[in-house]
Amino acid sequence: MKNHEDSWKNRKVFEAQLALNEKELSQPPFHWNCFFEAINSLKEEPKSLLDLGCGSAIFSELCKRYLPNTNYRGLDYAQQAIDVASERWEADLQVRDYRELTESDLSYETLHLGALLDVLPNADEALEIVAGYGFKNLILGRMKLVEGESKSETYEAYNLITTYAFYHNMENVHNVLIKNGYDYKVIGLADNATLVASKVGLKID
Length: 205
Fold this sequence. Notes:
It is built from eight helices and nine strands. With 205 residues, it is α/β, with parallel strands linked by helices. Strands 1, 2, 3, 4, 5, 6, 7, 8 and 9 form a nine-stranded mixed beta sheet that branches.
């Protein structure tokens, strides 16, 4: 079976992503609204946010507009993503894999994964890694949650590349977050969920 993990190392994909995201600024998609609901679920607005798998870094603009006091850094494993994003936004953007965070990265208060856990074939393993870093808060976007076993499928993204759609076993997600000391809640739909988790508790609705 062909491995598609590096399929995102493609400049045209991030140019297409950026074009779409800029249109969405005037009509935010569902998962962006879930992100802001997650932010509002935290006990206080995050002082800093590390955006892991930032892609075209649209969240740098969202933070600038709506969270101006939050220090933003975007990371992506694809140089092509960082090149496209850096040409458009003035932000701290760096090439880095989720397995290779630096001491400086780990000093950030809130870790955001906008869609990273949706497009990896080994997303259960990735969840274990990022939850184990010990960030105060986690915001995990665009997760597909199922009662059955975790699995991945392939699909075409932007009519340009083949990538993965990962389905997370909810019990495993629960166990990983609890084991690492997080309270959490699920926002959105089972097939498009955002999980917000905190080591200091969440606001009670």
